[in-house]
Amino acid sequence: MSLLGKLRPSVLRHFRPKASDSHASDSFLSAGKNQPGGYLFNETPPPPGQRRKLESWELPWYFTMLAAAAMLTVGLQAKPDTDPQKLARKEAIKQLKAEGKL
After folding, report:
1. Residues 70, 64: contact at Cβ < 8 Å?
2. What sign has the CA pseudo-torsion 72, 75, 78, 82?
3. pTM over 0.70, yes/no
């Protein structure tokens, strides 16, 4: 048995939570935590026939995200082709035409 194997139980004993620790029994999955019920983001739905009122930050956020998506789409479509194989092929064709072999 290696030295690490002998030390492992005694070393791990120090890392176990003690019963006196306040967070020893707290867990995300423990009873009483994160009970379903209520509304998303604690926002009550509007009465029937009425629309939800936008908050002041929502319209600029939507506009910014759409503008960023549009810029990325256009920008990535217009980027130059920098694939080394394609660049080498173009250069080889150019050289072969200059030599008269193509």
Report:
1. no
2. negative
3. no
